[in-house]
Write a structure and sequence with these properties.
The chain contains 4 helices and 10 strands. It is α+β, with helices and mostly antiparallel strands. The N terminus is likely disordered. Keywords: Signal.
């Protein structure tokens, strides 16, 4: 939001401070319509995942996720292809329609669901539904000269918090220059020790 600097210098400086927005706008910013995508070059996010040892959980120190535009051989139409590089190999995810949606956001949320389920023993279905509810109905958002940051705590008041092995403190954070642009940083982290931390950072 732009402001006229007609007041004193202190008022002008105050206008540059992060401005809180409504909770509903947090979900709107994260799920903004970023399509139709037009990628001249592939976009790469560096990926790291940290957490305690557990069956089904895989920490990642040197991974990446790439979003690229390609051609669907079945109909010769442009589509989006997500590729996860794991250091020991890669796997392709998709294709996704070029017209809308955010494959990187979908991938990140599903990765967080799987990790939380493995580390807490919780139901992926329950975790996914609670995250969806928080992302659409809650959250906090601030806008400053650097862009927009939206954050959510899906399990802060959950009735099952005591059984979540620290995931009741899970915070999801999304940083973007503008809601219409690709999300440049996606983070999931807990306050527990040892904690869980997952991040995708646009390069």
């Amino acid at each position: 939001m732009t402001r006229a600097f007609a007041l004193a210098l202190c008022a002008g400086l105050a206008a540059l401070a992060p401005q809180p927005m409504t909770a509903a706008e947090a979900g709107d910013a994260v799920f903004a319509e970023r399509g139709p995508w037009d990628l001249d070059a592939a976009l790469e996010w560096r990926m790291t995942v940290e957490g305690p040892q557990a069956e089904g959980f895989r920490p990642l120190a040197d991974a990446a996720v790439t979003l690229a535009e390609t051609i669907d051989p079945s109909d010769q139409q442009p589509v989006l292809q997500l590729t996860q590089e794991l250091g020991t190999g890669s796997r392709k995810i998709g294709p996704f329609p070029i017209s809308g949606g955010d494959p990187v956001l979908t991938f990140f949320l599903e990765q967080t669901v799987r990790d939380m389920s493995a580390l807490s023993g919780g139901s992926p279905h329950y975790i996914r539904n609670r995250m969806k509810e928080a992302l659409f109905r809650g959250g906090e958002i601030t806008r400053d000269e650097g862009g927009v940051t939206a954050s959510f705590q899906p399990f802060a008041e959950d009735a099952n918090a005591a059984r979540m092995n620290g995931f009741d403190t899970l915070r999801l954070t999304f940083v973007m220059a503008d809601p219409d642009d690709p999300i440049r940083e996606l983070r999931a982290e807990t306050d527990a020790v040892p904690g869980y931390r997952s991040a995708l950072v646009l390069q």
